[in-house]
């Protein structure tokens, strides 16, 4: 969590106590006066001085990974977990699900079996519900396990063992085998998403230079990263310190999108700039220059999730769009989409990945088409 001290700053834990205390247990340094150094020799304890072994100025915590969202303060930037989840941890997730979401895990079966079980202690048989089974002893045993954290292998209950063997495969609303396989698949997908985030490839930050000292910075903003900002900035160069960007000249021009911005692609030609922005199922094209404000030209929807958008460096208004369906389309603003390549599977081997990428090459009618298995060149003029 961002409000806790990192472990590298203060890695040891210590409690107060006399420096010459003899430990009465064999639990290592836990509970000992290990975090400070005592100096006083053989004098009385009141004359002793103590120095902490851990000094703040002696240890520095350096963040090894950059903040994923630029131009935002660390308090506003969201940073997910740095360690990818382990798919083999699905057992602990299943345990947490049964303990924290008990009504969701046992609601239906508990309502069905509730009329056939009696959970209260009764002194006479007449107070039992007709046709029900008394499971009061089993309930008390389970309450003791939960209250005192007892080991179920050491303290056993014959009635509980019989009920477990009788109803272990029907008492759950979701069978444990099915829940375990689904959790394993979800953790595997999350791990692959952290190691290679296919949706965030290409970069969502761009800079368009107007001159050697001025330019326009394009970046997403807002809580949902769904605002496209055009911010005119000034470049400051200095021999004594590194170059910096001055963004205090004015407020950015902002456009609100319906989905988070995944990629920004731009290209300048004859002082005009064409900008293409990709969301999951939306792609838009803007045009602006140093003197003209940004203007939205066209927005298109894609049936499959878009994985790449690339602006042509040769002809303004031409954009390549690739999607998870394996199709690559040439989008001419104002004229529509033209499908230039379709791949139903990966290029060279089955990588089980729907990520596709396309870019213009040095020729305006030859594009680079790639996935996670390889790359090929495609000529638009050849069917």
Q: Oligomeric form of this entry?
A: single chain
Q: Helical region count? A: 5
Label the overall shape. Answer: extended
Strand content: 25-35%
Number of β-strand runs: 20
Helix-strand category: alpha+beta
The run of helices and strands is EEHHEEHHHEEEEEEEEEEEEEEEE
Output mean pLDDT: 77
Question: What does this protein structure show overall?
Answer:
The chain has 383 residues and is of the alpha+beta class. The protein is 17% helix and 29% strand. The chain has five helices and 20 strands. Strands 5, 6, 7, 8 and 9 form a five-stranded antiparallel sheet that branches. It has a four-stranded antiparallel sheet with strand order 10-11-12-13, with no helix packed on it. The longest helix has 20 residues, at 176-195. It is extended and about 90 Å long. It starts with 35 loop residues before the first strand and ends with a strand. The model is unreliable at 5-16, 25-34 and 58-79 (pLDDT under 50). Pfam families: TAF1C_beta-prop.
Topology:
Layout: E1 36-39, E2 49-52, H1 90-100, H2 102-113, E3 117-118, E4 133-134, H3 136-148, H4 158-167, H5 176-195, E5 206-209, E6 214-221, E7 227-236, E8 244-246, E9 253-256, E10 263-269, E11 272-278, E12 282-289, E13 295-301, E14 306-311, E15 318-323, E16 327-332, E17 336-342, E18 357-360, E19 366-371, E20 374-379
Parallel strand pairs: 3-4
Antiparallel strand pairs: 1-2, 5-6, 6-7, 7-8, 7-9, 10-11, 11-12, 12-13, 14-15, 15-16, 16-17, 18-19, 19-20
């Amino acid at each position: 969590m961002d409000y806790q001290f990192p472990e590298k700053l203060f890695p040891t834990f210590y409690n107060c106590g006399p420096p010459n205390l003899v430990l009465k247990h064999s639990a290592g340094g836990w509970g000992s006066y290990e975090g400070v150094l005592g100096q006083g020799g053989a004098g009385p304890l009141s004359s002793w001085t103590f120095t902490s072994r851990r000094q703040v100025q002696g240890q520095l915590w350096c963040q090894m990974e950059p903040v994923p969202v630029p131009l935002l303060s660390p308090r506003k930037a969201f940073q997910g977990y740095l360690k990818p989840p382990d798919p083999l941890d699905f057992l602990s997730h299943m345990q947490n699900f049964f303990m924290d979401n008990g009504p969701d895990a046992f609601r239906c079966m508990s309502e069905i079996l509730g009329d056939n079980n009696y959970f209260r202690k009764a002194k006479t048989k007449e107070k039992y519900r007709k046709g029900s089974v008394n499971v009061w002893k089993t309930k008390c045993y389970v309450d003791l396990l939960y209250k005192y954290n007892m080991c179920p292998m050491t303290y056993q209950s014959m009635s509980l063992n019989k009920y477990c063997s009788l109803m272990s495969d029907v008492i759950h609303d979701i069978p444990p085998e099915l829940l375990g396989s689904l959790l394993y698949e979800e953790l595997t997908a999350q791990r692959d998403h952290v190691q290679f985030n296919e949706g965030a490839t290409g970069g969502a930050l761009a800079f368009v230079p107007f001159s050697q000292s001025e330019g326009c910075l394009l970046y997403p903003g807002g809580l949902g990263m769904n605002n496209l900002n055009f911010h005119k900035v000034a470049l400051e160069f200095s021999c004594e310190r590194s170059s910096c960007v001055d963004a205090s000249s004015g407020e950015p021009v902002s456009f609100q999108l319906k989905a988070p911005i995944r990629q920004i692609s731009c290209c300048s030609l004859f002082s005009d700039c064409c900008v293409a922005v990709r969301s999951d199922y939306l792609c838009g094209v803007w045009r602006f220059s140093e003197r003209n404000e940004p203007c939205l030209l066209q927005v298109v929807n894609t049936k499959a999730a878009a994985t790449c958008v690339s602006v042509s460096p040769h002809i303004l208004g031409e954009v390549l769009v690739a999607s998870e369906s394996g199709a690559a389309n040439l989008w001419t603003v104002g004229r529509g989409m033209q499908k230039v390549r379709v791949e139903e599977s990966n290029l060279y081997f089955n990588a089980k990945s729907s990520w596709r990428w396309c870019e213009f090459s040095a020729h305006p009618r030859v594009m680079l088409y790639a996935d996670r298995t390889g790359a090929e060149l495609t000529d638009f003029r050849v069917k």
